[in-house]
Amino acid sequence: MLDLAQRIVLCALLLGSVYASCPPRCECSEAAHTVKCVSRDLRSVPTGIPGYTRNLFITGNQISRIGPECFKGLDNVTNLSLSNNRISELDSQTFAGLRSLRSLDLSNNQLAVIHPEAFTVQNQSLQELNLSRALYNHSSVMDLATSLRWSSLGTLKRLDLSHNGLIYLPSHIFSHLTGLQRLQLSNNSLVAIHNNSFSGLEHLEELDLTLNALKAVPEEGLRELDSLPRADLLLGENPFTCTCGIEPFALWLNRSQGRIGDADGLVCAFPTGMRNTSMLSVGTLTLGCHQSGAGADLALQTSYVFLGIVLGFVGLIFLFVLYLNRKGIKKRIYDLRDACREVWEGYHYRFEIDSDPRLSQVCTSADM
Question: Which residues cross the membrane (predicted)?
Fold first, then answer.
């Protein structure tokens, strides 16, 4: 009987210790290895999170900054969600202590300052990084580019940068993510593909560029997309402008439609007369670009030939007139020569008189 009572007390103590190990305003489940601190108006990451935790959800709170001191002793955490917390600053080595971290969700935050090596994880275990709706402004993308280069993310397989209002991608921003397989860039404002933004992504399997501001993809961008031979592409819901110069892109779409998942749904947005026209058919339509260009060149060449003929004819007439009036012209030239000679002799005579005082006096006496 005493032995049974001791066992009951021991179980109670164990249960009490398990219950006590759960941080205030959080819910813990040792059986599921999960801790949830959801919408509890937390201002910082709670302390006392159990060491058995593998799935940690701290979402919908008022946390503004996180650093490496927030996650000490949590070697078993594999999935960490910090979404919707108004986080504005990530310190370097913030997640370095999470040796088993595989999935990190920072979506719906306000990241304005991202320090170098902010995403470094020991053992390079991180495979999924969600930064959807996470960047505060356009300048923070430069911090992100630096952090992606400095952090050890060679094993990262999925990166979500959707819904961030990105206008451009810094050069070689993903060059150190050599193991990346899926890149989501949908719902941004990207206007071009250039600057070798996708260099180093030889293993990429999916690239989502839907709902951006792409009017066309120039040859430089097409070369970048061709440098991703294994990637399936999504390009829908972009405002493609089907005017002169779009043909190379349209022909590329036809040639590459096997790897473009939404090729059949790509349509022209501008001009009005081409709206909703399939991009796959634009390459075979007559936009009038090359034809009108050839016609313009021919018209220009014809104009030059006609102008040359007219000028040549005018020149011949001028020479003919000169020939017919050659005697009169010759007489006029002789008369002009004699007149110039007389004027010159008069000036010469006057110069001799002015330069010799004696002649000057003789001339004066003679005048008297």
Answer: 304-324
Q: For residue 102, give the nearest of 63, 153, 148 by alpha carbon.
A: 153
HEC letters along 335-357: HHHHHHHHHHHHHHHHHHHHHCH
3-state secondary structure of 363: helix
Write the Ramachandran bin of 23: left for phi over 0, alpha for psi from -120 to 50, otherwise beta.
Answer: beta
Cβ contacts of 315 within 8 Å, gap of 6 or more:
none
Residue 146: which of 171, 166, 129, 125 has the closest Cα? 171
Taking CA atoms, 356 is separated from 103, 187, 299, 360, 362, in Å, by 114, 101, 73, 6, 10
Q: Would you mind telling me the total number of residues written for the chain in this entry?
A: 368
Query: Tokens for 71?
Result: 């996650």
Place of tokens 């059986």: 31
Q: Is-above-0.85 flag for pTM?
A: no
- Are the C-beta atoms of residues 74 and 49 closer than 8 Å to each other? yes
Closest CA to 323 of 342, 315, 125, 366: 315
The candidate with the shortest Cα–Cα distance to 122, out of 147, 103, 99, 90, is 99
What six digits make up the tokens of 319?
């020479």
| Under 8 Å between Cβ of 53 and 26 | no
